[in-house]
Write a structure and sequence with these properties.
- Helix 2 crosses helix 6 and helix 3 packs across helix 5.
- The chain contains 6 helices and no strands.
Length: 159
């Protein structure tokens, strides 16, 4: 069985089990304070660079919070903080996946308030989560990172 078939089957099971809203038109359920999330710009330059080269759809991510009750409070430190560690990369991966699925309209009118994010437990290996990945980046690359960030149009999130 192909991995894509397993993923689609699992997603279909999730979609049929997820609670849905009774309203046909998507309406704003939550008021999201963009300022609390640094207007969805990363405070860390390395994360901002990854946003620039991967073009994550943060508009779709924010809409999952306002229209689908997705609790994104656990991601706030990722946007306002200045750490670039393994935990930040794991959170960024969650944002990337949710952004793509949200942009495709997979969640529709589903209520995502019960979805548990940031619960990836490294157990006894928890110490590796705080490993500073930026220590692996050569200082000579920083001007190039800054150039890419400046030259890339990063879309503003508007709700």
């Amino acid at each position: 069985m192909k991995a894509s078939t397993i993923f689609v089957s699992a997603l279909a099971a999730f979609a049929t089990a997820a609670p849905t809203s009774t309203t046909a038109v998507a309406e704003k359920r939550v008021n999201l304070d963009l300022g609390a999330f640094n207007n969805f710009n990363f405070g860390n330059q390395d994360l901002q660079y990854l946003l620039a080269i991967n073009s994550f759809n943060l508009q779709a991510f924010a809409q999952l919070s306002t229209f689908n009750n997705l609790n994104i409070g656990g991601f706030q430190q990722l946007f306002v903080g200045n750490s670039f560690d393994i935990n930040a990369l794991l959170q960024l991966q969650q944002i990337a996946l949710l952004s793509q699925l949200g942009g495709l309209g997979v969640f529709g009118n589903f209520d995502l308030s019960a979805l548990q994010l940031n619960v990836f437990d490294l157990g006894l290996l928890g110490g590796i989560g705080s490993f500073d990945v930026s220590s692996l980046i050569q200082q000579s690359l920083i001007p190039q990172l800054q150039t890419v960030i400046q030259q890339t149009q990063i879309n503003t999130v508007v709700l």
